[in-house]
Amino acid sequence: MAGVSMARALNQALRDAMREQGDVVVYGEDVGRLGGVFRVTDGLQQEFGAERCFDSPAAESAIVGTALGMAMYGLRPVVEIQFDGFAYPALDQLISHVAKYRNRTRGAVGLPLVVRIPYGGGIGAVEHHSESPEAIFSHIAGLTVVTPGTPADAYSLLRAAIAHPDPVIFLEPKRRYWMTQEVALPVTTEPMTRAVVRRPGVTATVIAYGPMVSTALEAAEAATEEGWDLEVVDVRSLSPLDGGTLADSVRRTHRAVVVHEASRLGGFGAEIAAQLSEALFGELAAPVLRVTGWDVPYPPAKIERHFLPDADRILDAVARTLRY
Amino acid sequence: MARAGAARLPGSAGAVDGEWHDIGPDGSLGKPRSHEVGLSPEELRELYRLMAVGRRLDRQATNLVRQGALGVYASSRGQEACQVGAVAALEEQDWLFPTYRDSVAAWTRGLDMADVLALFAGIWHSGWNPLDRRVAPLTTPLATHLAHAAGLAMAAKLRGDPLVALALFGDGAASEGDSHEAMNLAGAASAPCVFVLQNNQYAISVPARVQSGARTLALRAAGLGIPGALVDGNDVVSVLGCVREAVERARSGGGPTLVEAVTYRLDPHTNADDPRRYRSDEEVTRWLERDPVDRLRRQLEEQDALPAGFLEAVDAEGERLAAALRERLFGAPAGDPLEMFDHVYAAPPPQLRRQRAELAAILEAEAEAELGPELGPETGPGGESR
To answer: Using CA atoms, how far apart are residues A202 and B129, in angstroms rounded to an integer?
Structure first.
C-alpha cells in the first residue's frame, strides 16, 4: 500500500465525486489549468472540461455568491478560496446568505455547497497565508465546519461534505498537505459530524483538530518517556461539535488540554472548555487548559514557531493539569 | 445625441425622455431608440393595470406601517415602470432576484402581496417558496444578490436550460464591491443574466452625484465588456423594450447586460426616513410630472385605447386586493417560536434539538403560568395553584 498525501487524497475525493455526480462543479482562483496553488485540483479541468472545473476572477465574494446561485439551481459547487486570509471578502456572502438561505426560505431552498479553504501556519508564508479563522465560521448558525487531520479523513470528509445537504466550510490544514498515510482510496472513515479518539490513553485527554492532530500525537508519543499515557481526540467537526465523544474521553481521564493554532480569546478552545465544564464539573481533576496561538496577529515566518503550539507546550499544559 | 426637442432627464447626463440608448463598447451613448416595441393596446392596458394596482398595494403597505401591521416598508412609488416593465420582459421559466424595494416587482411576478410583505410584517424572512414562481427572497444587504443571479444563470447555462436570471438593484448598491464582482464574473462566464439598476437618485439621503464620479452608471458596462443600456426608467414601454432585448440576448447566448433605468423614488426611503432633510419639494414636483403611471394613462388616452369602465375596473381591483392585504396582515398571528430551530439545517444537530427542547419547556411553563388563575372554580381568590 502506497503512502497517500493529504493533497492527493483531496484531489482524489474531488475527482471521484465529479465522476460519480454530474452536478459537482469545481471553481475558484487558479484551480483550472494550474490545478490550484497547492495542486489540490490538479488534472480536474483536463478530465472534466472547463465547464465543470474552471478559473474564476479573483473575487471571493462573487465566488461564494455564485456558488449560492448554482446550489439554488441544483448543482453541487465546490469552490476554493486560495488562502485563509482571502476568505474575509466572502464573509458577507457566507454569513448573510449562504448560512441563512435554508432558514430564510423555511426549508425550501437548501444549499449543498462546499467552500474549501487551506488554513493555518507553519509553512513559512507571508502575512495573510497562515491564519486559522475557524472560530469565525463556527459561530455562524447554518454553516457546518469540518477539518481533517489525516489523509484518510481528508478523502472521506470531503466526500461527505460534497454529499451533505447544507453548506460546509471545509478547512484544509495546509501544512499537512504533504503528510502521507498508508491508505487505499476510496476510504470511508467515521461519520462527518463525529469526533474520533486517535490514541487511547488514561493520563489526560489532548483535544485537537486539523493541523494540530499530528502535533498532539507527537506530544503523546513523547509523553510516554514521562510515563504518561495520553488520549488524543480529533474533533474533526467544529460545527456541529460532537461534545459527547469529548466528554466521554475526559470522563475517563479527568483532565483535558485543548490545542489549536488560532489565538486564544474567543477561540474554539473556549467553546470546548465551556462544554466540558458544563458536562463534567464534578469529575474534572483540573481546569480545562488551552494551548493556542497567542492573542496577536499571525507573526512573520522567521518567528512563527514561537507562536504555534508544539509538543513541548502541550506537555507543559498536561504537566500543569497533573499538578492539581 | 438626444433627438431634437427631447427633454433630458434630471439626474442623468445622457438619458432622455421616453427613450433608451445602447452603450457602445467605447462607453458612448448610441442613438436614441424609443417605442420600437410594438405593443398592442391590450398589452399596454395590462402594463397599466399592473402599475396602477401595484401602486395601490404599495400605498396600502405604507399605510399598514402607520397602522402597525408592518414594522417597516420600502416604497417603490414612482418606480412602477421599472418594477413592472422589467418583470414583464421575463418568461415563465426565468428568475427574478429582487431587493427590499422591489415588492411590486415580486407581486408582478405572480406572488400574493401578503406573502411578499411577510418580511416586513415579521412573519418570516421570506413569505414564499422561491421555487414556486422563480422569485428569490427580497434581499436586504446591498448588491450581494447579483452574484446569486449570476450563479443561477451559470448553472442553467451549464445544464443547457434556456432561462435568464434578472437582478434588480439600485444606485446605492452600485457602489458596493459585490456589484462589480458579480457583473464582472457574469461577463467572464457569459452568464445569461440581466442586471437592472434602478437609479432612483438617492441612496437613502445621498444623491447619485455624491455617490459616484461617473456620468452615468450604465457606462460601467463598457468597462466590464458587456452590453449596456441607459433607459428612461419612468417610461414602461422603453423599460420593457430595453430589458426584453437584454433578456433575449442573454437567452440566445449573448451574455449579461447592465441596464440603468433613470427613475425617482417619490416616497421616503422607508417610513422611518424624512426626505425633507435632503431634497426639495420642487424636485419632487418635477418628478411627479414624469409620473410613470400617469404617463401611461395619458398615452392610452391619446391612443384612444381606454374602453369605458377600464380605469374603474383597475381601481376596483386595486381596492379589492388592498382590502385582501389588510385582511391578511392585520392581526396576523406570530408563528410558532419553536419553528426558529426547524430550518437551520436539513437535519437539526444535537445542540439545536436540546435548545429547542429548552425553549419548549420555557413556553410550556409560560403557558401554565398564564392559565394558572383560570384553572377552574376551585381556583378562586386565595386559592392560587402552587
So the answer is: 53
As a whole number of angstroms, the distance between CA A219 and CA A214 comes to: 9
pTM to 2 decimals?
0.94
Of B147, B153, B154, the CB nearest to A61: B147
d(CA A107, CA A123): 41
Residues recorded for chain A: 324
- Interchain contact, A62 vs B131, CB within 8 Å: no
**Interface probe, candidates A18, A29, A61, chain B, greatest B C-beta count within 10 A:** A61
Q: Is B194 helix (H, G, I), strand (E, B) or coil?
A: strand
- Give the minimum alpha-carbon distance from B126 to chain A in angstroms, rounded to a whole number: 5
| Interface residues from chain B to A (CB-CB < 8 Å) | 124-126, 129-131, 136-137, 139, 141, 144-156, 158-159, 165, 177-178, 181-182, 184-185, 188, 339, 342-347, 349-351
Give me the residue from A75, A77, A96 closest to B141, CB to CB.
A96
From chain A, the residues in CB contact with B150 under 8 A are 62, 65-66, 69
| B148 touches A69 (CB < 8 A) | yes
Query: CA of A232: how far to CAs of A195, A196, A284, in Å?
Result: 11, 9, 17
Rounded CA Rg of chain B: 24
Tell me if B129 and A52 make a contact (CB, 8 A cut-off).
no
Q: Is the CB of residue B140 less than 8 Å from the CB of residue B150?
A: no
Contact A220, A130 (CB under 8 A): no
Q: Is the peptide bond before A240 cis (omega within 30 degrees of 0)?
A: yes
Please report residues of B whose CB lies closer than 8 A to that of A58: none
ipTM, two decimals = 0.96
DSSP states of A101-156: HHHHTTTS-----EEEEEE---S-PPTTSS---HHHHHTSTT-EEE--SSHHHHHH
CB A293 within 8 A of CB A309: yes
Report strand pairing: A144-146 vs A114-119. Answer: unpaired
Per-residue pLDDT of chain B (386 residues; tens, 9 = 90+): 334 444 555 555 555 677 888 888 887 888 888 766 789 999 999 999 999 999 999 999 999 999 999 999 999 999 999 999 999 999 999 999 999 999 999 999 999 999 999 999 999 999 999 999 999 999 999 999 999 999 999 999 999 999 999 999 999 999 999 999 999 999 999 999 999 999 999 999 999 888 998 878 999 999 999 999 999 999 999 999 999 999 999 999 999 999 999 999 999 999 888 999 999 999 999 999 999 999 999 999 999 999 999 999 999 999 999 999 999 999 888 999 999 999 999 999 999 999 999 999 999 999 999 887 655 455 444 444 43
* Whether the Cβ atoms of residue B227 and residue B221 lie closer than 8 Å to each other: yes
**What is the CATH T-level fold of the domain A196-323, as seen in this structure?**
Rossmann fold (3.40.50)
C-alpha–C-alpha distance, residues B196 and B202, integer Å: 16
Q: How far off is chain B from A101, nearest CA to CA, in Å?
A: 8
Task: Locate the domains of chain A by residue range.
Answer: 3-182, 196-323
The distance of B380 to chain A (nearest Cα, Å) reads 42
Domains A3-182 and A196-323 share a fold: yes
The CATH architecture one would assign to domain A3-182 is 3-Layer(aba) Sandwich (3.40)
DSSP assigned state of B30: -
Residues whose CB is less than 8 angstroms from the CB of residue B354 and which lie 6 or more positions away in sequence, other chains included: none
**Does B144 contact A64 at a Cβ distance shorter than 8 Å?**
no
Q: Which of A105, A139, A271 to mutate to test the interface with B (most CBs of B within 10 A)?
A: A105
Residues of B catalogued as catalytic: 265, 269, 278
